[in-house]
Specification:
Protein name: ABC-2 type transport system ATP-binding protein
Number of domains: 2
Number of helices: 10
Strand order of the largest sheet: 6-7-8-3-9-10
CATH architecture of the largest domain: 3-Layer(aba) Sandwich
Strand content: 25-35%
CATH topology of the largest domain: Rossmann fold
Shape: elongated
Helix content: 25-40%
CATH superfamily of the largest domain: P-loop containing nucleotide triphosphate hydrolases
GO molecular function: ATP binding; ATP hydrolysis activity
InterPro entries: AAA+_ATPase, ABC_transporter-like_ATP-bd, ABC_transporter-like_CS, ABC_transporter_ATP-binding, P-loop_NTPase
Bound molecules: adenosine-5'-triphosphate
Distance between the termini: 38 Å
Number of strands: 14
CATH class of the largest domain: Alpha Beta
Keywords: ATP-binding, Nucleotide-binding, Transport
Radius of gyration: 25 Å
Length: 309
């Protein structure tokens, strides 16, 4: 069995045209693997296709083409096992107002075929901080409590993979902290976590790996450390007094000569002092007329990757 929690190949989704709207190709052939045990962030602007992807994983949207394996089980060949391996906390709180939190968890467990003796209702209520509201009507719960109950519902069948769709959109700091505490704890216990978020800082803080989707395609997938490593990269742009070629550079510095004659040197600011580049340039006999630096942050990387298409 592979070490991947999720394996997606050539995944496509086209929503068929309806009276008012034309057909929409929401996913255009996604290939994506998500390692077991990781906290994986799925990022992308509005309409990128994140919810479509998550809903396909959850079995709520039917794909148009491609294969999806969840915990090694092919969604088409082993629908029951693949569904049992995943729990999804949706974006919108759809809760039956007449159920109590304990009742909701019980019904959900029943839907997943969890035998009564194996249900962990009390444990889950404790985890989501709703023990004292176990028997309150859902309609009397605050927005934050409803969100927590949604998390609880995603956990009733002890899935190996937990998916959180925009879990912190519009929630207060207290709930956000509680959610992240729970996510870290579940992950420490071995659960694979997949989350979508608009907040780049949040993804940086909590995710081991990140994929950015735009217009139905994965445009980058890397470890958060590597993505941040890219951010550590700076560029020094030198305008030479006279037209010149690039000097010989060590492996730690990448050079590029632009058509306007400027020389751009990209380097890791943590590893290479800018002074070293200036010395290299001077030692090559180049007279510097002007010099400036360029620096990117994750926001820039994200925007440059998502806005140019
Ligand atoms: N049921 C549907 N019928 C037709 N088109 C849809 C449907 N659901 C989503 N779409 C379209 O598919 C594209 C992808 O939408 P999706 O909701 O997956 O994006 P998203 O990245 O989750 O965005 P958001 O962050 O706003 O939730 C959008 O253009 C959207 O309008």
């Amino acid at each position: 069995m592979s070490d991947n929690a999720i394996e997606i190949h050539g995944l496509k989704k086209t929503y068929v045209a309806t009276g008012r709207s034309p057909a929409k190709e929401a996913l255009k052939g996604i290939d994506l693997t998500i390692p077991r045990g990781s906290i994986f962030g799925l990022l992308g602007p509005n309409g990128a296709g994140k919810s479509t992807l998550i809903n396909i994983l959850a079995g709520l949207v039917v794909k148009s083409a491609g294969t999806v394996k969840i915990w090694g089980f092919d969604q088409d060949k082993n629908p029951r096992q693949s569904r049992a391996a995943i729990g999804v906390m949706p974006q919108e709180p759809h809760l039956d107002p007449f159920f109590t939190p304990a009742g909701s968890l019980d019904v959900q467990a029943g839907l997943y075929g969890v035998p009564k003796a194996q249900r962990k209702t009390a444990e889950i209520l404790e985890l989501i901080g709703l023990t004292d509201k176990a028997d309150a009507y859902a309609r009397s719960l605050s927005g934050g409590m409803r969100r927590r109950l949604l998390l609880g519902k995603a956990l009733v069948h002890s899935p190996q993979i937990l998916v959180l769709d925009e879990p912190t959109a519009g929630v207060d700091i207290e709930l956000r902290n509680m959610l992240w505490q729970n996510v870290r704890r579940l992950n420490d216990e071995g659960m694979t976590i997949i989350l979508t978020t608009h907040y780049l800082e949040e993804a940086e803080e909590i995710c081991d790996d990140i994929a950015i989707i735009n217009h139905g395609e994965v445009i980058i997938k890397d470890s958060t450390a590597n993505l941040l490593g890219r951010l550590d990269s700076k560029t020094l742009v030198i305008t030479p007094e006279a037209d010149t070629d690039l000097p010989v550079l060590p492996d730690t510095i990448t050079g590029q000569k632009h058509t306007d004659g400027t020389l751009a040197f990209t380097y890791k600011s943590g590893a290479t002092p800018a002074d070293q580049i200036l010395s290299l340039v001077r030692d090559a006999g180049i007279t510097i007329k002007d010099v400036r630096t360029e620096e990117a942050d994750l926001e820039d990387v994200f925007l440059s990757l998502t806005s140019s298409r």
